[in-house]
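Collaborator request, handled under Task 6.
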Amino acid sequence: GVAHRLLWSAVSEARVNTGDPVGGLAAARRSLAAGEARGQTDDELVRPLGLACMCAITGEPDAVEGFADRLAGVAAQAPSEVNITAAANAAGYVLLARGEADAALEAYRQMDALGRGIPHLQGVALKNMAVAASQLALTPRAEGSTTFVDALDHVYRGRMWSLVWIVLEALAVFWARSERPLDAAVILGYLDRHGRANGVLLDGRRQALDVLQGVPGADAAGTEGAAMTRDDLVEFALGGLSGCA
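Structure tokens returned to the collaborator:
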């Protein structure tokens, strides 16, 4: 039972990080079922609950709130830093599922404050802020750029590569919507070459690809990105952000 719970959590994380939130949600539910079959409480199932909540944003948005409520209950009953952060994370996912990106960004700012001094927890919060910023309807370019600079700088310095890819993908969505399609194409070219895609950003990525259709030079920019090293890509992104922040 424990082995199956851990296995399906790993499968869920792999699915959502390769652009398959529907498969990720199914795997998260199997992880939860394995734990529940052994009588484990929600306090012991925080990881699969968090994965289910994240995957459901795209795959089954009506289910997000239920998972978030369970995590809120865990945080109330066992208020550890991990549980409180997981609940804050999920509360932001509820807002993203509702299309309330501004409110989600504010929720993740509060999560960032909770995670100060704990590098990975703060990295998750900053990553989430980048995801929310990529979905804002109207954002001054400088404000959006600052969000991405803070997030990318933190996760890159910490070599948190799973978070780096998500921040970069969110930045590509942001740039595609901010009339910088060629810069977006460079990032997406790299991510496509290496099979990186986050399920939470699935709709935004599709929209970015729609923007790139027919843009002169987009294919060449994608080829340029595909040939970069990961460090070159981060430097490219940070250089582009410093030019408009």
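The cover message to the collaborator said: "The mean pLDDT is 91. The chain is about 75% helix and 0% strand. Please let us know whether this matches your experimental observations."
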